[in-house]
Every structure is written in structure tokens, then in C-alpha cells.
Amino acid sequence: MTKSTETTVSALCVVATVIVLQGGSLRGGTTGEAFRAAPPPPPAAVIQKKQKPPVVAPPPPPPPPAAAAVIQKRQKPPVAASPPPPPAIKGPPPLKKQHPGIKDVWEPPARPVVGKPPARPRLPQNLGSGAGLAPERPEYASIDDTAAGERERPATARNRREAARVVGREEHWPGESVFVSIASYRDPECAKTVSRAFERAAVPERVSFGIFQQNAAADVDCVGGLADLVRCPSHAACGRVRRGQIRAYRVPWTETLGPTIARHLSERLYRNETYVMSFDAHTNFARGWDTVAIDMFKRIGNPRAIVTTYPASYAATNHSELWANVDANGPCRECRTIDDQRDAKFDPTPETQMAICRTRRVQVGRTLSFKHDVNRMRRPPRPTLVPFLAAGFNFARGERIRDVPYDAHSYFLFDGEETSLAVRAWTHGYDFYHPDRDVTRLLDHRLGKALPPPILDDAPDQLRPRSPRPLGFLG
């Protein structure tokens, strides 16, 4: 190589070096970094081997149960001692002691000392034979008839014709019986009610009464009073005591325990009749009422049906509930012998009927009670489901008494007896139906006459602790 060539090569090397140095400076690096080459990437296997996590040793096996219990017992924190109860705070002294010089300082009334409530009286456990009237009673012979079940009376034949017209066929089901439950509280209409029921029945032989009577000595007896009303042997009520169709249990009116208990005890006189019917002791009946009621129940097709409503009313007359004419011997003698409702007429298929339209809670004194409201509605073409039950009239299979009797623990309960029975009956599978026939009517005390004396009105002192106020009457 010539000298000029060597000079040229050297110059080019110097220029190249300068260019490289300038380029590294422009990229923001240092002189050493410009010439430092990146090492080649390691193989994938080497990377995976280096990133493999270390092997974790398995945990030691758990200690046996005994050891765990020892550990848990040792780790249980100590129980802290409960703090002592705070000292009792005494109230301020009475105002009169704080201000002895001030007169007429009002003091809050002392709270009455509530003692142990009086023991509940025991219900009678044995109602005896249930004979409506003892044979030695002088009235017994007047209403007795040894051939009561064999004699066909003109009134009975008329009742059957009327019942056949209403139900649309000549079917009376003489093999089925009806038990009538009545709780009577000093009601002079009770004997008249029994008399009308037999006289207007299509089959008097199937009707039986269970009466729980609460009377004073001078009051009209529900069974003995028949002697003043009926003439035997022409009347259908004659001989029914002898045949066991009128059963009764009597207590003095001062020993009454209220309407719900009275209804419960009247149902204890039930003797396995096919049907049970309950109403008040001041009731009148449609002719052939027993056949009409049975037909109505059968058309429902529900063995756990209860046909129920408040019946239509009839007004008090001169000889019914004449409470203004009362002397020491009770209601007037003329009122005992004359029944103004004996020949009363009413249509069992009217255009409108009484119906329970709602129930509400009402405040009566210190008692919160349930009260039904009634109104008139168009008579339905068939028995209709309703949510309410009325004590004024209800008709069901006799098994209802065994399944759901009136409550035996509701002492002096008047407003609420219907709701109590309805709730328990419905929860036992019973349904309530409004009737499409009127078979009874109820004496309305508001139509011109005064109310009978309520329960516990003028009651002796021994009854006062049981109930501080009258709770209503039962008839």
C-alpha cells in the first residue's frame, strides 16, 4: 500500500469514529453504552427453569381430637367478672314532705293494689238426665200425651204442604233429626218459641230441644210455661217431654256466666241428632221450617257447611215481651197464655233478606269488641258463601258440636261469641253460607218495647267482681 493510500484509510477511520460517537450522544446514551451490545436472550427452557416457584413443604397433619381440645381449652380467654349491680335509685319524697308549708298540693292517686283475681267458677260437669220437666211437676200432666208420635194433626199436614211448595217436591226426610240449641236468660218468650217450633214443623217427631235456662223463681219456665199455651192432645208439643224431645238444664240467674258459656252448656244436651240448629229464645218459624232447612243444606253439597244469617224481625206486641207490665209474679198472667205470633204469616222466599255486610271493632266501656252490621240485599238464587257467622240463626250437621262447640272458657262474652265460633269453625274446615230461604224470624226489642234486663243488672254483690259492668243480655 502506498503512503497516500494509508493516509486516506486513516482519515476515514477517524471520521467513522467521530460519527459513531456523535450518534450515541444523540440517542441520550453514554459513550460506553453506545458500544455495549445487548446480550443474546437465553433459551426458553432456561427462562422456565429459572421462573419455577420453589417447592412448598406440605403442612403438618392436624393434631388428634384430644390435642385439639387441649389447644382450644388453653386458648380460651379468661371470663371477665360481671360488674356489680348499680345502686337502687330512690325517688323524690312526696310533694307534701318537700313543701310542708304549701297547702292543697296535688298528689297523684295511689295505684290500686291488684290482688289475685277470683277463681273461675266451675262449669257443671253433669247435666243429669236432661229431662225437660219432672213428672211430679204440676205442669207435666197438662202437656203429656202418650200417643204423641202416633197422632196426625191438621197443622202438621198443612206444614208439609207448605214445605213441599217451597222446596218443589214432596220430600221430608223423616229419618233425619234436628237438635235445637237454646240458651235462655230470663226470657218469657222461651216457652212460646218451643211451642211454635213443634206446631210449625213438618215432622215434629224429629225435632229435639236442648235448653240451658237461667231464670229467677218468678220467671216463666221454658218447658213448664207450655202448660199455659198448649191444649193437649191437639197441639204438636204435647207429649214431647215424655219422648225425651225436650231436654233442659236450669240454674238461678245469679249463677249465670254469660251467653257463650250458656250456649256451650245447651249443646251438651246433644244426643247425636243429624243436624244442629241454633237461634235465640224469642223466635218464630216458617211453616215446614225443618224440611226447608234440610233441603237448603242438602242443595249446598258440602257436609261442612253452616247456613247462617241474622233473621228478619217481628215486632213486639201487647202479649210478647211486655216488660212494662211486670209485677212480683213476673210477666203478666195474660202474656203467658196468649201468643200473638201463633198464626203469624211470613213468606220464606221474599225478594230481599237481611244479611251481614261487614264486621267492625267497637269500644264498649273498657272492652274492645266485634260487632256485625246488617243490611238488606236481594235474596240469592242459591245458598251463597259468606265470611260471617251469626248466632241468631245457624244450621249445620250435628258433628259441628263435637268438632267445634261454643267456647267453654269465654266468661261473660257477648260481643265476640260469633267471631270466636267463626274463627275456630273455619280453621276446622267449615264454610259459611247465606241462606236462600227464610226459616225463622227474630223478635226485635227495638220495635216499640223496652229491652229486657241485661245480665248482671241489679245483680247481687257476689257477681260484681267477675264483671264490673253489664255485658248484654241473652235470650
TrEMBL record:
<feature type="compositionally biased region" description="Basic and acidic residues">
    <location>
        <begin position="148"/>
        <end position="160"/>
    </location>
</feature>
<feature type="region of interest" description="Disordered">
    <location>
        <begin position="31"/>
        <end position="160"/>
    </location>
</feature>
<feature type="compositionally biased region" description="Pro residues">
    <location>
        <begin position="55"/>
        <end position="66"/>
    </location>
</feature>
<dbReference type="Pfam" id="PF11397">
    <property type="entry name" value="GlcNAc"/>
</dbReference>
<feature type="compositionally biased region" description="Pro residues">
    <location>
        <begin position="80"/>
        <end position="95"/>
    </location>
</feature>
<feature type="region of interest" description="Disordered">
    <location>
        <begin position="453"/>
        <end position="475"/>
    </location>
</feature>
<protein>
    <submittedName>
        <fullName>Uncharacterized protein</fullName>
    </submittedName>
</protein>
<dbReference type="InterPro" id="IPR021067">
    <property type="entry name" value="Glycosyltransferase"/>
</dbReference>
